[in-house]
Write a structure and sequence with these properties.
By secondary structure, this protein is mostly helical. It has helices spanning 3-26, 43-54, 59-119, 122-131, 134-143, 146-155, 158-171.
């Protein structure tokens, strides 16, 4: 190698080293792209997309706003339905409680009537039980002692006694 070639090679080496060192000092860090930043194929594509996104009246924004409004309305309606369901459940519990109280009162009254009929003469009790509603008569007979109920049934006309016995056997 001649001296000329050596100088050119050395000069080239120094030039490249200086250029690389200077380039490393001036480079800015490359920003990390997030999910929201989009990469566009050209400047024109970026300009068009930004103008579309910037328009408040764009179809995409209108649809997005409509969807958001519908979601809000659905949530509002859902909360109303939940409130109504809670109210209905509270009313159901209240009605069940009232029905239980009513049934307890009726049962207590039927028990008292059964005691009264047991204390009456069998023929008089039979006349009265023949005249009352069949379901009530069956309930009263069911609450009575077996011996007292048998005496009363013995004094009721045969067809009516058969109906009461049949109803009694089906109820219990």
């Amino acid at each position: 190698m001649t001296m000329k070639h050596t100088l050119v090679a050395a000069f080239t080496l120094v030039f490249l080293t200086c250029t690389l060192t200077h380039a490393e000092k001036q480079t800015t860090p490359v920003p990390v792209k997030t999910g929201q930043e989009k990469q566009y194929g050209s400047v024109e594509e970026r300009r068009i997309m930004e103008s579309l996104q910037g328009e408040s009246g764009s179809p995409l924004n209108k649809e997005r706003d409509d969807l958001d409004n519908k979601k809000k309305e659905l949530k509002r309606l859902e909360s109303e339905v939940d409130k109504k369901l809670d109210q209905l459940n509270q009313m159901r519990v209240r009605i069940e409680k009232l029905l239980a109280e009513k049934e307890a009162k009726e049962s207590k009254k039927i028990q008292e009537l059964a005691k009264m009929y047991e204390k009456m003469a069998a023929d008089k009790a039979a006349l009265i039980l023949s005249a009352v509603d069949q379901d009530l008569a069956v309930s009263i007979l069911a609450k009575m002692k077996t011996k007292s109920a048998a005496k009363i049934l013995n004094n009721i006309e045969r067809e009516k006694a058969a109906k009461l016995s049949t109803a009694y056997s089906l109820d219990n």
